[in-house]
Structure formats: C-alpha cells, structure tokens
Amino acid sequence: MESSDDTKLGQSCSSDVNNDNNMPTTSAESPFNISQDSKTYYPETKLPIQDELHSVLDSILHMLNGSLKQEGEMLIMVTQTVIHLLKGLKEELDTRRELTRVERFSMKRFEGSDEDIKFWTGFYSYETLIVFYEHVCQNHASSLKYWMARNSQEEQANKRGPKCSFDPIDQMFMTLVKLKQGSGNKDIAERFKISDSYVTRIFITWINFLFNALVEGTNIWMSKGKVRKYMPAFFKGLYPDLQVIIDCTGISVERPSDLEVQAATYSQYKHGNTLKGLIGISPSGVTTFVSDLYEGSISDNELTMNCGLLDLCEPNVAIMADRGFTCKEAIMKRKLRHVTPHFLMGAAQMQPHQLVESVAVARCLFS
C-alpha cells in the first residue's frame, strides 16, 4: 500500500516538471512559488510597509508640488510689490527733483518775471537772456573744461565721476548773479543748493569762457576821430583833444596762503589783499580799455606805464586822470598830454587859472 501511494505521488510531481529546462513550474492557479535555489515553496504575500511607503511618498510629492506652487505665487506677488514700490519711489524722486529745481535759484524760477531777471543779472528780460545763452554759450557749454584747485587738479585729472546735474544754463545764470550782486560763495551756494567749492569751480570756468567769447579779440578801443565824433559839447569846449579818462580799481581777494603772493597782493590803500586793474572810458562814457589784473601792491603810475594803454593812444591827444597819477613826464615823452587837477605843491593856495582848471577837471571826472 505504501509503495503504491509513493508511486502516485512521484507521478504527480514529475508531471509538473518542465522536461526541457529541467526547472520546476507551477500552474496559474497555484498559490505557491518555488525557489530556484532551494526548491522550496512559500506563499506570495504583499507586505503592509510597501503600501505605507507608497502612501508617504505620494504625500511628500503632493506637499512638494503644493509648496512649490505656493512659493511661485508668493514670488510673483513679492516681485509685483517690489516693482510697484520702485515705481512709487521713482515718481517721488522725480517730484522731489522738480521741487528742488523750482525752489533752487534757477532761471526757470524767474521765467515769468523780466523785472527779477533784470534785478539779478542786469539783462532786460528773460527772453534776452535765453537768446544770449543760445547764441553765445550753448554750443560750447558741453565742452567746457572746469577749473580745479591746484592741489586737486593733478589728482583728479583722469578721474571720471558722475555727470553734473547742474544745468549749463543755470551755471551761466549763477555766474551772472554773482557778478551783478557781488555775492559771496556761501550766499551763492545756499541759493543754488551746491557746495562752496563747486561755486568757485563754476564761476572761474564761466568767467574765463565769457571773457574769451565776448572780450578777447574784440577791439573796444575808439580812434581819435570816433571819440571826437561822439564827444559831449561840455568836453569839446574844455578839452577837445581828450582821448580817454583813466582810473585804477582794486578787487578784494581772499588772503593767499603763499606768503610771497600774500605780500604782493596786499594793498595799503585797501588795507587788504587785492588785484588791481586800469579802466579807460571815452568822454561820452563808453568803456574803451580794460587792462589785465595786476598784484594789488603795484602803484597807479607803474600800472599805467605797463598795461598797454599808452601804446594805443595817437600822438597829440590828452589823457585825463585823478591827481594820484603823477607820471606826467613819462606820458609827455610819448607826445601825449597829461590832464590832472593841480597840486598846491607847498603853496598857500592855487593860482586862479590852476583853480579853474582843477574845477574843470573835477567836473569832468565826477560829473
């Protein structure tokens, strides 16, 4: 009996074996797998941890996707907010800049007031000043080389900086205001909202430019015939040969740090440091000569002899001056007549004809 049962079991097992590959197989409905190595059977089960792991991974991916989406939306909101703030800041900056430009002492501020333009600059109207700028200054304003102090010029010669926001037309306006009003740098700096040193740079630069554009190369000297043509009757009756009336003037300057320059520019008459120049006018009141500036310590006589005025005078004309000009002999050597008030020269009183001449000269000089 046992042998028969064993035989049936062996036949059953052998029928399930793949004869070609000599490998065990199972039917589709079999709930068992056979290990190739151990040839043992075990049930096919799905571990609970796998489902849990898949669930956790799905949750993480879902959270990440949601987080990234939220972060993206947040980034867009932040970017839009920043752009909005920047636009607001730009508008506020433009508004402040416009207010500063209007509040600052500028030509635009006096656009509608010819009276103010005349007061501050001497020009008769805003339109006249605009025409002057357009015809004389505009084409050269962008190429001006700005003056710098000696101690900083070499250092900053090749240094590039931000573009100046002070319009050239207002630089010209500032220069004219300083000339007309005689204002100090501190006053000008406060009015135009710039530094004291920048006032100096702009003023010196524009003075040199305006001199080159308006004065240098321009012959303002009047010939003997033209002076005679426009001479007032009062002068014709007294001094028909009068060519020019001269006087010296001193311009106060800051005390130089260099001791030699300080001594050379010191004027005993002005009791301070000055530069001195000579001005000549015709009998009709037209300015016909302006000398270069010399050190304040130079005498009137020395300045008269060296400034070039005498070289312009034709022979046999008269030069009128105050009594401080005592270079009569040097002038007469050039065949010129020197007209000044008479001195007492130690006498108790003047001779009648001297008194008459002195009064006449005084009337010419101070009338």
UniProtKB/TrEMBL annotation:
The keyword Transmembrane does not apply. Its cofactor is a divalent metal cation. Residues 1-35 are annotated as: Disordered. It comes from Patiria miniata. Keywords: Metal-binding. Pfam families: DDE_Tnp_4 (PF13359), HTH_Tnp_4 (PF13613). It comes from the Eukaryota. PANTHER family: SI:CH211-262I1.5-RELATED (PTHR23080:SF133), THAP DOMAIN PROTEIN (PTHR23080). One of its GO terms (molecular function) is metal ion binding. Residues 167-214 form the Transposase Helix-turn-helix domain. This is DDE Tnp4 domain-containing protein. The keyword Metal-binding applies. Residues 246-362 form the DDE Tnp4 domain. Residues 9-35 have a biased composition (Polar residues).
